[in-house]
């Protein structure tokens, strides 16, 4: 039997995105059929409510945030870096508790994005990089994959 996998809760139909909606995708359920799935939202776990103001990475990507060289700022200019970092650490703890060797995360998110994230100027432009949670999980040996078909 394959080991458990941590998945962004919004991909499992939990309405936890910044806009109060989910991002359930049939391909995710099909790909993970037969596996134990641990649904987790790092932004809620970090103390942010739902709905909440959209946030983007400013000054770098998730690795830069973890190293203190970049911030996570919401569309109103509020620094929400601490909540994103706290949520990332709680996601790592949840993955370790469940024995997850891999995670499937929401693409483009400032938390969960893998490979590309928004540029920090709230204009819909994508740039190479990873979200805060994706970066922390990768740094700790957990394979991070973006969700298929999103």
Question: Would you write up a description of this structure?
Answer:
The chain is of the alpha/beta class. The chain is 27% helix and 20% strand. The strands form three sheets. Strands 2-1-5-8 form a four-stranded parallel beta sheet, with helices on one face. A hairpin with a 7-residue loop joins strand 6 and strand 7. Helix 4 crosses helix 5. It is globular. This is DUF523 domain-containing protein. It comes from Streptomyces fungicidicus.
Short characterization:
The chain has helices at residues 26-31, 42-45, 62-66, 81-98, 132-139, and strands at residues 5-8, 37-40, 55-58, 71-74, 102-105, 116-118, 126-128, 143-146.
Mind sketching the topology for me?
Elements: E1 5-8, H1 26-31, E2 37-40, H2 42-45, E3 55-58, H3 62-66, E4 71-74, H4 81-98, E5 102-105, E6 116-118, E7 126-128, H5 132-139, E8 143-146
